[in-house]
Amino acid sequence: MPNPSSGAPRAAPAALSSAHESAARARRHFALPVPRGRLAWITGVVSSVLLAANTLFWCLLLFPIALLKLALPFAPVRRRIDPILNAIATAWVSCNTGWFAHIQPDPWDVQGNTGLRYADWYLVNCNHQTWVDIFVLQRTLNRRIPLLKFFLKQQLIYVPVIGLAWWALDFPFMKRHGKAALRKNPDLGRQDQEAARRACAKFSLVPTSVMVFAEGTRFNESKRAAQGSPYRHLLKPKAGGLAVSLNAMGARFRSMIDATIAYPEGAPSFWDFACGRAGPVVVRMRQVPVPPAFCEADYTRDKAFRTTFHQWLGQQWQAKDDEIEALTARGANAPKS
Protein backbone atom coordinates (compact mmCIF):
# COMPACT_ATOMS: atom_id res chain seq x y z
CA MET A 1 0.00 0.00 0.00
CA PRO A 2 1.30 3.53 -0.76
CA ASN A 3 2.58 5.54 2.15
CA PRO A 4 -0.58 7.29 3.48
CA SER A 5 1.34 10.21 4.86
CA SER A 6 2.68 11.17 1.48
CA GLY A 7 -0.12 10.12 -0.90
CA ALA A 8 0.40 10.70 -4.60
CA PRO A 9 3.45 12.76 -5.54
CA ARG A 10 3.01 16.50 -5.89
CA ALA A 11 3.68 18.20 -9.19
CA ALA A 12 7.29 19.21 -9.68
CA PRO A 13 8.10 22.94 -9.94
CA ALA A 14 8.93 22.57 -13.65
CA ALA A 15 5.54 20.97 -14.27
CA LEU A 16 3.82 23.77 -12.33
CA SER A 17 5.71 26.32 -14.39
CA SER A 18 4.68 24.68 -17.66
CA ALA A 19 1.05 24.45 -16.56
CA HIS A 20 0.91 28.13 -15.64
CA GLU A 21 2.59 29.21 -18.88
CA SER A 22 0.00 27.21 -20.84
CA ALA A 23 -2.82 28.78 -18.82
CA ALA A 24 -1.36 32.25 -19.38
CA ARG A 25 -1.18 31.68 -23.15
CA ALA A 26 -4.79 30.48 -23.12
CA ARG A 27 -5.86 33.62 -21.29
CA ARG A 28 -4.02 35.89 -23.73
CA HIS A 29 -5.46 34.29 -26.85
CA PHE A 30 -8.90 33.00 -25.93
CA ALA A 31 -10.17 34.84 -22.84
CA LEU A 32 -13.22 37.07 -23.05
CA PRO A 33 -13.00 40.64 -21.71
CA VAL A 34 -13.48 40.92 -17.95
CA PRO A 35 -16.87 42.55 -17.23
CA ARG A 36 -16.35 46.04 -15.80
CA GLY A 37 -18.43 48.94 -14.55
CA ARG A 38 -22.12 48.78 -15.36
CA LEU A 39 -21.70 45.57 -17.39
CA ALA A 40 -20.23 43.78 -14.35
CA TRP A 41 -23.05 45.06 -12.13
CA ILE A 42 -25.71 43.88 -14.59
CA THR A 43 -23.95 40.50 -14.90
CA GLY A 44 -23.93 40.15 -11.11
CA VAL A 45 -27.64 40.94 -10.81
CA VAL A 46 -28.56 38.52 -13.60
CA SER A 47 -26.36 35.81 -12.03
CA SER A 48 -28.00 36.27 -8.63
CA VAL A 49 -31.51 36.17 -10.10
CA LEU A 50 -30.73 33.06 -12.13
CA LEU A 51 -29.20 31.36 -9.08
CA ALA A 52 -32.30 32.13 -7.00
CA ALA A 53 -34.71 31.04 -9.75
CA ASN A 54 -32.77 27.84 -10.43
CA THR A 55 -32.70 27.03 -6.70
CA LEU A 56 -36.44 27.60 -6.32
CA PHE A 57 -37.27 25.48 -9.38
CA TRP A 58 -35.31 22.42 -8.29
CA CYS A 59 -36.42 22.77 -4.64
CA LEU A 60 -40.06 22.60 -5.74
CA LEU A 61 -39.23 19.16 -7.15
CA LEU A 62 -37.11 18.20 -4.15
CA PHE A 63 -39.43 18.96 -1.24
CA PRO A 64 -42.38 16.60 -2.02
CA ILE A 65 -40.00 13.65 -2.38
CA ALA A 66 -38.19 14.66 0.84
CA LEU A 67 -41.52 14.68 2.69
CA LEU A 68 -42.16 11.15 1.49
CA LYS A 69 -38.79 10.12 2.93
CA LEU A 70 -39.68 11.83 6.20
CA ALA A 71 -42.98 9.95 6.37
CA LEU A 72 -41.29 6.60 5.63
CA PRO A 73 -37.93 6.70 7.48
CA PHE A 74 -36.85 3.16 6.62
CA ALA A 75 -33.53 2.08 5.09
CA PRO A 76 -35.10 0.35 2.01
CA VAL A 77 -37.10 3.51 1.28
CA ARG A 78 -34.02 5.70 1.69
CA ARG A 79 -32.05 3.54 -0.74
CA ARG A 80 -34.65 4.26 -3.41
CA ILE A 81 -35.43 7.89 -2.62
CA ASP A 82 -31.98 9.27 -1.80
CA PRO A 83 -30.62 8.70 -5.35
CA ILE A 84 -33.60 10.65 -6.72
CA LEU A 85 -32.98 13.54 -4.32
CA ASN A 86 -29.28 13.51 -5.14
CA ALA A 87 -30.06 13.51 -8.88
CA ILE A 88 -32.25 16.59 -8.46
CA ALA A 89 -29.51 18.36 -6.51
CA THR A 90 -26.94 17.36 -9.14
CA ALA A 91 -29.14 18.88 -11.85
CA TRP A 92 -29.32 22.10 -9.79
CA VAL A 93 -25.50 22.16 -9.57
CA SER A 94 -25.20 21.52 -13.32
CA CYS A 95 -27.43 24.48 -14.16
CA ASN A 96 -25.50 26.79 -11.82
CA THR A 97 -22.20 25.55 -13.20
CA GLY A 98 -23.27 26.10 -16.80
CA TRP A 99 -24.06 29.77 -16.25
CA PHE A 100 -21.11 30.60 -14.02
CA ALA A 101 -18.70 28.86 -16.40
CA HIS A 102 -20.11 30.94 -19.25
CA ILE A 103 -19.41 34.31 -17.60
CA GLN A 104 -15.88 33.60 -16.30
CA PRO A 105 -13.41 35.06 -18.82
CA ASP A 106 -10.29 33.36 -17.41
CA PRO A 107 -9.77 29.65 -18.25
CA TRP A 108 -9.48 27.55 -15.11
CA ASP A 109 -6.33 25.53 -14.51
CA VAL A 110 -7.60 22.21 -13.11
CA GLN A 111 -5.59 19.01 -12.64
CA GLY A 112 -6.29 15.74 -10.87
CA ASN A 113 -10.08 15.47 -11.20
CA THR A 114 -9.94 12.46 -13.52
CA GLY A 115 -10.00 8.73 -12.76
CA LEU A 116 -12.91 9.15 -10.33
CA ARG A 117 -16.09 7.08 -10.09
CA TYR A 118 -19.59 8.50 -9.77
CA ALA A 119 -20.95 5.33 -8.17
CA ASP A 120 -18.63 5.32 -5.17
CA TRP A 121 -17.91 7.04 -1.87
CA TYR A 122 -15.31 9.79 -1.35
CA LEU A 123 -14.07 12.02 1.43
CA VAL A 124 -13.07 15.45 0.06
CA ASN A 125 -10.77 17.69 2.12
CA CYS A 126 -10.06 21.22 0.88
CA ASN A 127 -8.66 24.55 2.00
CA HIS A 128 -11.23 27.33 2.45
CA GLN A 129 -10.84 31.01 1.52
CA THR A 130 -14.23 32.14 0.21
CA TRP A 131 -17.75 30.88 -0.45
CA VAL A 132 -16.67 30.70 -4.09
CA ASP A 133 -14.71 27.56 -3.09
CA ILE A 134 -17.98 25.61 -3.03
CA PHE A 135 -18.87 26.65 -6.60
CA VAL A 136 -15.33 25.80 -7.71
CA LEU A 137 -15.54 22.29 -6.21
CA GLN A 138 -19.00 21.73 -7.62
CA ARG A 139 -17.87 22.75 -11.10
CA THR A 140 -14.73 20.61 -11.06
CA LEU A 141 -16.27 17.51 -9.46
CA ASN A 142 -19.92 17.55 -10.57
CA ARG A 143 -20.93 14.20 -12.10
CA ARG A 144 -17.40 12.89 -11.58
CA ILE A 145 -18.19 11.86 -7.99
CA PRO A 146 -21.50 11.80 -6.08
CA LEU A 147 -23.07 15.03 -4.83
CA LEU A 148 -20.86 16.87 -2.35
CA LYS A 149 -22.37 17.02 1.14
CA PHE A 150 -20.65 19.15 3.72
CA PHE A 151 -20.93 20.08 7.38
CA LEU A 152 -22.94 23.25 8.06
CA LYS A 153 -23.45 25.56 11.00
CA GLN A 154 -26.77 24.87 12.77
CA GLN A 155 -28.01 28.42 12.06
CA LEU A 156 -27.91 27.83 8.29
CA ILE A 157 -30.95 25.56 8.47
CA TYR A 158 -33.01 28.75 8.77
CA VAL A 159 -31.83 30.16 5.43
CA PRO A 160 -34.99 30.45 3.28
CA VAL A 161 -35.54 27.58 0.82
CA ILE A 162 -31.92 26.38 0.63
CA GLY A 163 -31.81 25.58 4.36
CA LEU A 164 -34.70 23.16 3.90
CA ALA A 165 -33.00 21.75 0.81
CA TRP A 166 -29.84 21.02 2.82
CA TRP A 167 -31.99 19.33 5.46
CA ALA A 168 -33.82 17.26 2.81
CA LEU A 169 -30.47 16.13 1.38
CA ASP A 170 -29.17 15.11 4.84
CA PHE A 171 -26.43 17.72 5.07
CA PRO A 172 -25.18 17.47 8.67
CA PHE A 173 -25.84 20.57 10.79
CA MET A 174 -23.32 21.21 13.56
CA LYS A 175 -23.33 23.56 16.53
CA ARG A 176 -20.14 25.58 16.85
CA HIS A 177 -18.87 25.91 20.42
CA GLY A 178 -16.10 28.16 21.64
CA LYS A 179 -13.06 26.83 23.48
CA ALA A 180 -14.29 28.23 26.79
CA ALA A 181 -17.65 26.45 26.45
CA LEU A 182 -15.94 23.18 25.51
CA ARG A 183 -13.59 23.38 28.49
CA LYS A 184 -16.56 23.97 30.76
CA ASN A 185 -18.66 21.21 29.21
CA PRO A 186 -16.72 18.66 27.07
CA ASP A 187 -20.00 16.91 26.22
CA LEU A 188 -20.79 19.75 23.80
CA GLY A 189 -18.01 18.54 21.48
CA ARG A 190 -19.26 14.97 21.65
CA GLN A 191 -22.74 16.14 20.59
CA ASP A 192 -21.36 17.36 17.27
CA GLN A 193 -19.38 14.15 16.83
CA GLU A 194 -22.53 12.13 17.36
CA ALA A 195 -24.38 14.30 14.83
CA ALA A 196 -21.59 13.63 12.34
CA ARG A 197 -21.80 9.89 13.00
CA ARG A 198 -25.57 9.89 12.45
CA ALA A 199 -25.15 11.75 9.17
CA CYS A 200 -22.43 9.37 7.99
CA ALA A 201 -24.65 6.40 8.84
CA LYS A 202 -27.22 7.79 6.39
CA PHE A 203 -24.53 8.46 3.79
CA SER A 204 -23.43 4.83 3.89
CA LEU A 205 -26.70 3.72 2.25
CA VAL A 206 -26.01 5.27 -1.18
CA PRO A 207 -22.81 6.60 -2.84
CA THR A 208 -21.96 9.98 -1.30
CA SER A 209 -19.11 12.46 -1.21
CA VAL A 210 -18.49 13.91 2.24
CA MET A 211 -16.95 17.39 1.99
CA VAL A 212 -14.78 18.75 4.81
CA PHE A 213 -13.15 22.16 5.15
CA ALA A 214 -10.67 21.13 7.83
CA GLU A 215 -9.89 24.74 8.75
CA GLY A 216 -13.46 25.11 9.98
CA THR A 217 -13.78 28.68 8.69
CA ARG A 218 -12.63 30.87 5.82
CA PHE A 219 -8.99 31.88 5.77
CA ASN A 220 -7.84 35.47 6.15
CA GLU A 221 -4.67 37.05 7.46
CA SER A 222 -6.22 38.31 10.70
CA LYS A 223 -7.45 34.82 11.60
CA ARG A 224 -4.07 33.34 10.72
CA ALA A 225 -2.29 35.81 12.97
CA ALA A 226 -4.80 35.39 15.81
CA GLN A 227 -4.30 31.63 16.01
CA GLY A 228 -0.56 31.73 15.33
CA SER A 229 -0.88 29.44 12.33
CA PRO A 230 2.49 28.05 11.18
CA TYR A 231 1.22 28.07 7.57
CA ARG A 232 1.44 30.93 5.08
CA HIS A 233 -1.88 30.34 3.32
CA LEU A 234 -3.83 28.14 5.73
CA LEU A 235 -5.33 28.14 9.19
CA LYS A 236 -4.58 25.27 11.55
CA PRO A 237 -6.69 22.25 10.55
CA LYS A 238 -9.34 20.94 12.92
CA ALA A 239 -9.07 17.19 12.90
CA GLY A 240 -12.34 16.25 14.63
CA GLY A 241 -14.80 16.31 11.70
CA LEU A 242 -12.35 14.56 9.39
CA ALA A 243 -11.51 11.88 11.95
CA VAL A 244 -15.17 11.23 12.83
CA SER A 245 -16.07 10.87 9.14
CA LEU A 246 -13.27 8.36 8.64
CA ASN A 247 -14.22 6.46 11.77
CA ALA A 248 -17.92 6.36 10.87
CA MET A 249 -17.63 5.24 7.24
CA GLY A 250 -13.95 5.13 6.29
CA ALA A 251 -14.25 1.57 5.01
CA ARG A 252 -16.76 2.88 2.45
CA PHE A 253 -14.51 5.60 1.08
CA ARG A 254 -12.69 4.74 -2.12
CA SER A 255 -10.13 7.39 -1.18
CA MET A 256 -9.74 10.87 0.25
CA ILE A 257 -9.58 13.57 -2.42
CA ASP A 258 -7.11 16.18 -1.24
CA ALA A 259 -8.22 19.35 -3.06
CA THR A 260 -6.22 22.57 -3.16
CA ILE A 261 -7.72 25.80 -4.53
CA ALA A 262 -5.57 28.84 -5.26
CA TYR A 263 -6.55 32.28 -6.55
CA PRO A 264 -3.34 33.87 -7.91
CA GLU A 265 -4.97 37.33 -8.02
CA GLY A 266 -6.63 37.01 -4.61
CA ALA A 267 -9.71 35.15 -3.33
CA PRO A 268 -12.85 36.58 -4.97
CA SER A 269 -16.08 37.31 -3.13
CA PHE A 270 -19.34 35.76 -4.31
CA TRP A 271 -20.26 39.10 -5.88
CA ASP A 272 -16.99 39.13 -7.83
CA PHE A 273 -17.77 35.60 -8.99
CA ALA A 274 -21.34 36.49 -9.98
CA CYS A 275 -20.05 39.51 -11.92
CA GLY A 276 -17.56 37.38 -13.86
CA ARG A 277 -14.56 38.89 -12.08
CA ALA A 278 -13.26 35.83 -10.23
CA GLY A 279 -9.90 36.00 -11.99
CA PRO A 280 -7.69 32.93 -12.54
CA VAL A 281 -8.65 29.83 -10.57
CA VAL A 282 -6.15 27.01 -10.03
CA VAL A 283 -7.26 23.64 -8.67
CA ARG A 284 -5.08 20.65 -7.84
CA MET A 285 -6.50 17.32 -6.67
CA ARG A 286 -4.96 14.01 -5.69
CA GLN A 287 -6.38 10.83 -4.25
CA VAL A 288 -4.94 9.85 -0.88
CA PRO A 289 -5.44 6.26 0.38
CA VAL A 290 -7.37 6.07 3.64
CA PRO A 291 -5.22 4.21 6.20
CA PRO A 292 -7.27 1.23 7.46
CA ALA A 293 -6.38 2.01 11.09
CA PHE A 294 -8.12 5.39 10.76
CA CYS A 295 -11.41 3.62 10.09
CA GLU A 296 -11.29 1.73 13.39
CA ALA A 297 -9.65 4.01 15.98
CA ASP A 298 -11.69 6.24 18.30
CA TYR A 299 -10.51 9.83 17.94
CA THR A 300 -12.36 11.04 21.04
CA ARG A 301 -10.97 8.45 23.46
CA ASP A 302 -7.65 7.26 22.01
CA LYS A 303 -4.97 9.85 22.80
CA ALA A 304 -2.25 7.99 20.88
CA PHE A 305 -4.43 7.88 17.78
CA ARG A 306 -5.18 11.60 18.08
CA THR A 307 -1.46 12.30 18.07
CA THR A 308 -0.92 10.06 15.02
CA PHE A 309 -3.85 11.60 13.19
CA HIS A 310 -2.69 15.16 13.89
CA GLN A 311 0.76 14.32 12.54
CA TRP A 312 -0.73 12.77 9.39
CA LEU A 313 -3.01 15.74 8.80
CA GLY A 314 -0.17 18.15 9.56
CA GLN A 315 1.92 16.58 6.80
CA GLN A 316 -0.99 16.92 4.38
CA TRP A 317 -1.44 20.56 5.39
CA GLN A 318 2.22 21.47 5.04
CA ALA A 319 2.29 20.00 1.53
CA LYS A 320 -0.88 21.94 0.70
CA ASP A 321 0.60 25.19 2.02
CA ASP A 322 3.75 24.68 -0.08
CA GLU A 323 1.64 23.97 -3.15
CA ILE A 324 -0.47 27.12 -2.71
CA GLU A 325 2.74 29.14 -2.33
CA ALA A 326 4.06 27.74 -5.62
CA LEU A 327 0.75 28.22 -7.44
CA THR A 328 0.10 31.77 -6.28
CA ALA A 329 3.70 32.91 -6.73
CA ARG A 330 3.79 31.56 -10.27
CA GLY A 331 0.33 32.94 -11.03
CA ALA A 332 1.28 36.41 -9.79
CA ASN A 333 4.17 36.50 -12.27
CA ALA A 334 2.18 35.15 -15.23
CA PRO A 335 1.22 37.64 -18.00
CA LYS A 336 -2.31 38.98 -17.57
CA SER A 337 -4.85 38.66 -20.36
Main features:
52% helix; alpha/beta; six-stranded mixed sheet; two-stranded parallel ribbon; 337 residues; 11 helices; Glycerol-3-phosphate (1)-acyltransferase
Low-confidence stretches: 1-31, 332-337
How much of the residues is beta strand, in percent?
5-15%
Categorize the overall geometry: globular
Q: How many separate domains?
A: 1
Distance between the termini: 44 Å
In CATH terms, what is the architecture? 3-Layer(aba) Sandwich
Adjacency order of strands in the biggest sheet: 1-8-7-2-6-3
Average of the residue pLDDT scores: 83
Number of alpha- plus pi-helical segments: 11
Helix/strand order, N-terminal first: HHHEEHEEHEHHEHHEHEH
**Computed CA radius of gyration, to the nearest angstrom:** 20 Å
Structural class: alpha/beta
Helix content: 40-55%
Describe the structure.
With 337 residues, this protein is an alpha/beta fold. The chain has one domain (13-333): Glycerol-3-phosphate (1)-acyltransferase. Helix content is 52%, strand content 11%. The chain has a 6-stranded mixed β-sheet, sandwiched between helices. Strands 4-5 form a two-stranded parallel ribbon. Strand 4 (152-153), helix 5 and strand 5 (173-174) form a beta-alpha-beta unit. Helix 2 runs antiparallel to helix 3, helix 2 (37-71) packs across helix 5 (162-168) and helix 7 (187-203) crosses helix 9. The radius of gyration is 20 Å and the shape is globular. The model is unreliable at 1-31 and 332-337 (pLDDT under 50).
